[in-house]
Design goal:
43% of the residues lie in helices and 17% in strands. It is built from 25 helices and 22 strands.
C-alpha cells in the first residue's frame, strides 16, 4: 500500500534488534528471501545512517551516496532514488521505513510528510509488538550507577528521583473530524497562554524574580508559526496531539543541527511549550505528589516548567542537555538549585522513587547509591549546612585577610532576582552587571525606557554601593537579538561585544544613554568588554561622553573602564592606564586567548591554569603599570570565585574580586584565614625551582593543606 501510494516500486521496513542491528522485517519490491537475512549496523549504509542520526535522507541516486551499502541478497541494484525516514517513539529509534524507485528523482516535500506520518503509525505498531526499552517492559535495576556531567549550579542534594522524560507518542494519531480537532487545539493554545500569564503575574508578584526570562518564554508560546504548522497538520487528518508531536519533532531535529549554543538552548523552551499544549489537550488532572527534596531528572527543561517543579519542592536538577546560558540554568542559579547537565543516560537508567545523590560541585549524579556512599554524602550535607550557617555570620564582618590586608568582594549578577544577594552576602557592590542577560532572555534589544527601568532598579538595590555595568557582550556564543547567527569559524574571536557596538554605534549609544538616564545624577561606572586596542576603548569612551553631554542630569562621577580579556592590550599598557579609570580582568576569555585553548572544548578543560607562570607574569606586568598610575585592577572572571585562585590573586596585589553570590562568603571565610605574605613566599619558591611546572597549583595547594587551610 505504501509503495503504491508513493508511486514507488519498493517499500521496506527495517526494525532495530538487539546489538543495534537493523534487520529487514518486511518489503514490497525487494526479494522476500532477504527478510530476516539482511542486517545493517547503526551507521552502516543509508538505513544505518538514518537510524544513527534520526534525520530523513531523500536521495535521487542513493547508490552514489558515500554511505551506500549494497546487499546482493536484496536485488536492489535496479533502484536509483531512495527516501528513508526514521521510525521513532518517545525519543528512541525503533527502525527505518524506506521507499525506492527505478527513476532517479527527489521525493516531494508532501511525499516526505506522508511517509513520516506512516512512520509515526508504524512506531506504535512496533511498540505494541514489543519493540520497547527495558524500563517500559518493567525491568527495574537496583544496581548503583554513576553519571558525570558539567556543573551549572554548585551544591549537593540528596533525594528521590522524579523523572520528566521524552514525549510519549499520542494514543490517537488520526482524526475523524478535523474541524473538531482544530477547535480542541485552539482552545488548548489559549489555555496554555493564560496559564503562562498566570505564572508570571501570580508567582512573580513584585518583580523580584526573573520576569525577563518568563517574558521571553511568553513570546515563544505566542509564536504564530508553530500554531500555523500544527493546524495545517490537523487539516491533513492528524489528531491535535499527533500534530503537536509531528511539528515539535521536526523543529527539534532542526534545532539540534544548529551550532549556536544559545539557539540550541531554545529547544528546552519548545519542549516545555509542547508538553503544556499536550497537557491542556488532556484536560485537568491532579499533579502527582513530589517527595520533599526530590531530584528532578530530565532530558531538557524549560523555564516555566522549572518554576512549576520548584514550587513542588525539588532540591536539585539533572538535565541531559543544557548549558550555562540556557533559561533554565539561569533560573536554577537564581533559585539556588544544585544543577548539572550532560549526564547522558541518567534519565533512561533512573526509576521514579530511586534514591539519588547529586554532587553538582563535582559534576556527578549517583543513582541508587550504595549505603556507604549515601551515608558519606549525608554527612557532607550536614557539614555543608553547618558551614553555611557559620559563613552567614561573616556577612557583616569586614573582608580582610589574617594579616590585615583589606579586600573588596563584589558580585557578578545579570538578573533582578540576584539583587537580593547584595544584602544576603554583605557584598561591597556589583563588580560585573551583565547587561545582555535580560536582552538575551527577551530575545530582543529592548528600547531605552525599558533599559532605564532595569538599570535604575539595580542602582536602587545597590543603595550607594558601586555597580560596574558591562556594556552589551553579544555575539560569539550569545546570539545578537534580531539577527541570524553569524557564519564564523571561531565566533569567540569574531564579531562580538564592543566590536558590534562600534560597528553599530546607534545600538551602543542607546544603551549608554539608558545607563546615564538611570544614574540620574548618581555615580556611574561603565565597563567595555572585548577591547583589543586602546583606540577601540577611546572610541567607545567618546560615545559615552557625547551621550553624557546630552542628558540633563549627568552622573556626579563617571568612571569608565575596560575588561582585560585580549592579550594585545598588554603590549600597550602605558597608553591604556592613561585612558582608563579602572581595569577588570575577565579570566575566562583571557585564558582561552592567552593559551589558544577554546574554553568550550572538553578535551582542553583544566589543561591550562590561572596559577601558572605565564599568567602570574602577565598579572604582575599589568600591576606594575596600573598601580603607579593609580588605576584599580579587579578580577571578575571565574577564577575569583575559587578559594585557591582568590588567595593567589590577593597575594599578587589584586584585592578586588567579583564573583557569583554562591561563592562570596566561602571565599571571604577562606581568605580570613590566610596570611598573604606567606603565600608570596610559597609562590616565589615554586617559581624559582629548577624545573618549574606548567602549573603552580600543586605546591600552593599542598602548602595550604599543611597549614590547615580548607581548600
Amino acid at each position: 500500500m505504501v509503495a503504491n501510494e508513493m508511486s514507488a516500486e519498493v517499500s521496506s521496513v527495517y526494525v532495530m534488534n538487539a546489538g543495534d542491528l537493523l534487520e529487514l522485517a518486511a518489503t514490497e519490491g525487494l526479494r522476500q528471501e532477504a527478510i530476516g537475512q539482511t542486517r545493517l549496523r547503526v551507521g552502516e549504509g543509508i538505513v544505518g545512517l538514518v537510524a544513527a542520526t534520526g534525520h530523513v535522507l531523500n536521495l535521487p541516486d542513493a547508490q552514489f551516496h558515500p554511505g551506500f551499502a549494497y546487499r546482493p541478497e536484496t536485488d536492489e541494484e535496479p533502484y536509483a532514488s531512495m527516501l528513508a525516514v526514521p521510525v521513532r517513539r518517545a525519543g528512541r529509534t525503533l527502525g527505518v521505513l524506506t521507499v525506492q524507485s527505478r527513476a532517479p528523482r527527489k521525493f516531494e516535500a508532501d511525499e516526505v510528510e506522508v511517509l513520516e506520518t506512516v512512520a509515526m503509525l508504524l512506531a506504535e505498531m512496533l511498540a505494541a509488538g514489543g519493540a520497547s526499552d527495558a524500563a517500559e517492559e518493567g525491568v527495574m535495576s537496583t544496581a548503583q550507577r554513576r553519571f558525570a556531567g558539567s556543573m551549572l549550579v554548585p551544591g549537593i542534594a540528596i533525594g528521590e528521583a522524579v523523572l520528566r522524560g521524552a514525549w510519549h507518542a499520542p494514543h490517537a494519531t488520526l482524526a475523524d473530524d478535523p474541524e473538531a480537532e482544530l477547535a480542541r487545539f485552539q482552545a488548548a493554545a489559549e489555555s496554555t497562554q493564560r496559564s503562562i500569564d498566570t505564572l508570571i503575574s501570580e508567582r512573580l508578584p513584585e518583580g523580584d524574580a526573573p520576569r525577563e526570562i518568563l517574558e521571553a518564554y511568553r513570546l515563544v508560546a505566542a509564536d504564530a508559526g508553530m500554531s500555523r504548522r500544527v493546524m495545517e497538520a490537523v487539516r491533513q487528518g492528524l489528531s491535535a496531539e499527533a500534530a503537536i508531536h509531528q511539528v515539535g519533532g521536526e523543529l527539534r531535529d532542526r534545532m539540534r543541527r544548529i551550532v549556536d549554543p544559545y539557539l540550541r538552548e531554545r529547544l528546552a523552551d519548545l519542549e516545555d511549550l509542547s508538553n503544556r499544549l499536550l497537557a491542556a489537550l488532556a484536560g485537568p488532572k491532579a499533579d502527582a505528589a513530589v517527595p520533599p527534596g526530590a531530584i528532578l531528572i530530565a532530558r531538557r527543561l524549560g523555564p516555566a516548567e522549572l518554576l512549576d517543579w520548584h514550587a513542588r519542592g525539588i532540591s536539585g536538577i539533572v538535565v541531559e542537555e543544557g548549558s550555562p546560558g540556557g533559561h533554565a540554568a539561569i533560573l536554577a542559579r537564581a533559585l539556588g538549585l544544585p544543577t548539572i547537565s550532560g549526564a547522558r543516560g541518567a534519565l533512561d537508567t533512573a526509576n521514579d522513587g530511586d534514591a539519588v545523590v547529586l554532587d553538582a560541585d563535582e559534576g556527578l549524579v549517583v543513582i541508587r547509591p550504595e549505603h556507604e556512599v549515601r551515608t558519606a554524602y549525608l554527612a557532607a550535607v550536614q557539614l555543608q549546612t553547618e558551614r553555611r550557617a557559620g559563613l552567614a555570620m561573616l556577612r557583616d564582618k569586614p573582608s580582610v585577610t589574617r594579616d590585615g590586608v583589606p579586600l573588596r568582594l563584589m558580585l557578578n549578577v545579570g538578573l533582578a532576582l540576584e539583587l537580593a544577594q547584595l544584602d544576603l552576602t554583605g557584598a561591597e557592590g556589583i563588580g560585573l552587571f551583565r547587561t545582555e542577560i535580560a536582552m538575551l532572555a527577551r530575545g530582543a534589544v529592548v528600547d531605552v525606557p525599558e533599559q532605564v527601568e532595569v538599570y535604575s532598579r539595580v542602582l536602587d538595590a545597590a543603595a550607594g554601593r558601586e555597580v560596574v555595568f558591562r556594556t552589551l557582550d553579544l555575539g560569539g556564543d550569545k546570539l545578537l537579538p534580531g539577527g541570524p547567527p553569524a557564519e564564523e569559524e571561531n565566533p569567540a574571536m569574531g564579531w562580538r561585544s564592543l566590536r558590534i557596538g562600534l560597528d553599530r554605534p546607534a545600538l551602543l549609544r542607546r544603551q549608554l544613554r539608558a545607563l546615564l538616564l538611570a544614574a540620574d545624577g548618581r555615580e556611574l561606572s561603565v565597563m567595555f568588554p572585548m577591547v583589543a586596542t586602546v583606540a577601540e576603548f577611546r572610541a567607545a569612551k567618546s560615545l559615552l561622553l557625547a551621550e553624557a553631554r546630552r542628558v540633563t542630569r549627568p552622573p556626579e562621577r563617571l568612571h569608565v573602564g575596560t575588561m582585560l580579556e585580549v592579550p594585545a592590550l598588554m603590549y600597550d599598557l602605558p597608553a591604556l592606564v592613561c585612558a582608563v579609570d579602572f581595569i577588570s580582568i575577565g579570566t575566562n576569555d583571557l585564558m582561552q586567548f592567552l593559551f589558544a585553548a577554546d574554553r568550550g572544548t572538553p578535551a582542553l578543560a583544566g589543561r591550562y591554569d590561572v596559577i601558572s607562570p605565564p599568567v602570574l607574569k602577565l598579572l604582575e606586568t599589568l600591576l606594575s603599570h596600573a598601580s603607579p598610575a593609580g588605576v584599580p585592577v579587579a578580577v571578575c572572571g571565574e577564577a575569583a570565585s575559587r578559594p585557591v585562585e582568590a588567595m593567589v590573586l590577593a597575594a599578587l596585589g589584586i584585592t578586588t574580586l567579583s564573583m557569583p553570590a554562591s561563592s562570596l562568603l566561602s571565599v571571604k571565610g577562606f581568605l580570613a584565614t590566610v596570611e598573604l605574605a606567606a603565600v608570596r613566599a610559597v609562590l616565589a619558591q615554586a617559581r624559582a625551582a629548577a624545573n618549574v611546572a606548567a602549573s603552580l597549583r600543586e605546591p600552593v595547594t599542598m602548602w595550604a593543606r599543611e597549614h590547615g587551610l580548607s581548600v
